[in-house]
Amino acid sequence: MAQKFKIKKGDLVQVISGANAERGGDRGKQGKVLRVFPETNRVLVEGINRVTKHTKAGQSDRGTRTGGIEHVEAPIHISNVAVVDPETKKPTRVGYRIETVERDGRQRTVRIRVAKASGKDL
């Protein structure tokens, strides 16, 4: 069974391990999560871990040529990224706050994701 993660699609995350940005790596860079892969424990982050992909030349239905060299994002391990605190703009851990909300005349418990550093909602 796939594991449940605290990082979700659309979160702003920062790379916390790997090569420095000054050395051509991605550590310290921030980006938005495009997709989460729970089966491989990886996330796809916008602008992070860009790789060069060579695609075979071909033709589309309209006759335009396709293929060549593309730069695309590759998945990065989920342990190498951390959610960015909305207040301090620095990486933080994620916690949960349980609240009871009244909906349709009934009491329901809701888990709200919270930044551990500032206590702000994510």
TrEMBL record:
Residues 6-39 form the KOW domain. It comes from the Bacteria. InterPro entries: KOW, Rib_uL2_dom2, Ribosomal_uL24, Ribosomal_uL24_C, Ribosomal_uL24_KOW, Translation_prot_SH3-like_sf. SMART domains: KOW. GO terms for cellular component: ribonucleoprotein complex; ribosome. GO terms for biological process: translation. Keywords: Ribonucleoprotein, Ribosomal protein, RNA-binding, rRNA-binding. GO terms for molecular function: rRNA binding; structural constituent of ribosome. The keyword Ribonucleoprotein applies. Signal peptide: none annotated. CDD domains: KOW_RPL26 (cd06089). The keyword rRNA-binding applies. Belongs to the universal ribosomal protein uL24 family. Part of the 50S ribosomal subunit. One of the proteins that surrounds the polypeptide exit tunnel on the outside of the subunit. One of two assembly initiator proteins, it binds directly to the 5'-end of the 23S rRNA, where it nucleates assembly of the 50S subunit. This is Large ribosomal subunit protein uL24. It comes from Tersicoccus phoenicis.
